[in-house]
Specification:
The protein is an alpha/beta fold. The protein has a domain at 3-60 and 98-168 and 268-337: FAD/NAD(P)-binding domain, CATH 3.50.50.60. It has 14 helices and 18 strands. The strands form 4 sheets. It has a 7-stranded mixed sheet, with helices on both faces. A hairpin with a 5-residue loop joins strand 9 and strand 10. Helix 10 packs antiparallel against helix 11. The protein is globular and about 60 Å long. This is 2-polyprenyl-6-methoxyphenol hydroxylase-like FAD-dependent oxidoreductase.
């Protein structure tokens, strides 16, 4: 039995806690926030990640909490409907793929582990010694056999073990922001989208949400923003969206009052190795694929499963690298391609995209066109054969 510390109680952290505990390890999770994070945006679970969720016994619960989104409607600057698509097609989902709010999934994972795993909230790692002694901001130091960094793209664990972030970050030339806003559009399991050259605004409300989420994406050179300066980030968003029509000015007014504001670059993390000494990384900390990939949650779920399995019944950290890396690379490759469809880079590209969306439901080769859109995502989502590490 191994004594393991996990830094971060997001999807990667709570999923890792489940699988490591199931393999018989003693697990502690330290989380900077004062409680499990329940906010966030909608996320997809596809392919191999669905198998992981099923093996956790959570498939029915995830289905019960699905967003149940129906349609996505694109509007022009004056509020006129440009086109409407089925929500699954708009999101690139096929077959059994599921969509759930990130906070809902995190709650399910936390509830699955809270009785068997020690959670320490309101604290974070400050140092990791060669012998496994870990120091914290608030708690006394403790010794662990292994530290799992599951603390996101800006991972403190990665910085401590591998050095500063810039060498691992690959900027995709865009930014993303999302927060909760009043459902002033009266949306019912639908998305409302407005796109201009280099900027996109998306508002949606799910089955379980009385409010709405406002999501903004735009192309930009690096902004050099402070990750903890929320007021400054809101000003950067307003500057980026200045002059955009439709409902954007009113949405920006709502953003000023939001208390769950998220803002970051659309970036990926690329590393030659995910482990060093007594430290290993999982999820965004080691191989963030960016929101543009649509596969961040699936990578976290599959990564947690493979890490725990290889540590307990496989080839250890070497096995984790070998089994997971092709899957990570296939899913990271989606990001640079997908971002072009999320934020148009020119008037010609925007015109072509909107025209294709308008014509798609009536095209003679509709199924082939849809496969061109969804096929790469489906293939990446299934680009791993999962071992059966536990009965």
């Amino acid at each position: 039995m191994t004594n393991i510390l996990i830094s971060g109680a997001g999807i990667a952290g709570t999923a890792s806690a489940y699988w490591l505990r199931r393999h018989g390890h003693t697990v502690t999770v330290v989380e900077r926030a004062s409680a499990i994070r329940t906010g966030g945006y909608k996320v997809d679970i596809r392919g191999a990640a669905l198998t992981v969720v099923e093996r956790m016994g959570l498939l029915d619960a995830v289905r019960d909490r699905s967003t149940d989104m129906r349609v996505a409607t694109t509007y022009d600057a004056k509020g006129r409907v440009v086109c409407t698509l089925d929500a699954a097609l708009f999101g690139g989902r096929t077959g059994e793929d599921l969509e759930i709010m990130r906070g809902d999934l995190n709650e399910l994972l936390y509830d699955l582990t809270r009785d068997d795993v020690e959670y320490v909230f309101g604290d974070s790692i400050t140092g990791i010694a060669e012998d496994g002694t870990v120091t914290f901001e608030r708690s006394p130091s403790r010794r662990f056999d292994l530290v799992v960094g599951a603390d996101g793209m800006h991972s403190t664990t990665r910085r401590i073990a591998f050095g500063e972030e810039p060498g691992f970050t690959r900027d995709l030339g865009h930014y993303i922001s999302i927060c909760t806003v009043p459902n002033s559009l009266g949306l019912d399991r639908e998305e409302a989208v407005h796109a201009t050259v280099g900027r996109t605004a998306n508002v949606y409300s799910t089955r379980r949400d009385r409010d709405a989420k406002a999501l903004f994406m735009w192309s930009s050179e690096p902004l050099g923003h402070d990750h903890r300066d929320v007021a400054g980030q809101k000003k950067l968003l307003e500057r980026a969206m200045d002059g955009v029509g439709w409902r954007v000015p009113a949405l920006l007014e709502d953003v000023r009052e939001a208390d769950d504001f998220y803002f970051d670059s659309v970036s990926q993390i690329h590393m030659d190795r995910w482990s060093r000494g007594r430290v290993v990384l999982v999820g965004d900390a080691g191989y963030c694929a960016s929101p543009a990939s649509g596969q961040g949650t699936s990578l976290a779920l599959v990564g947690a499963y493979v890490l725990a399995g290889e540590l307990s019944g496989g080839d250890g950290l070497e096995g984790y690298e070998r089994e997971l890396r092709p899957f990570v690379e296939a899913n990271q490759a989606l990001g640079p391609t997908n971002i072009k469809g999320m934020v148009s880079g020119s008037r010609a590209a925007l015109w072509f995209q909107l025209r294709m969306m308008r014509l798609l439901p009536r095209l003679p080769g509709r199924d082939r066109m849809i496969e061109r859109i969804t096929g790469p995502i489906a293939r990446a989502a299934n680009a791993i054969t999962l071992k059966s590490y536990v009965e």
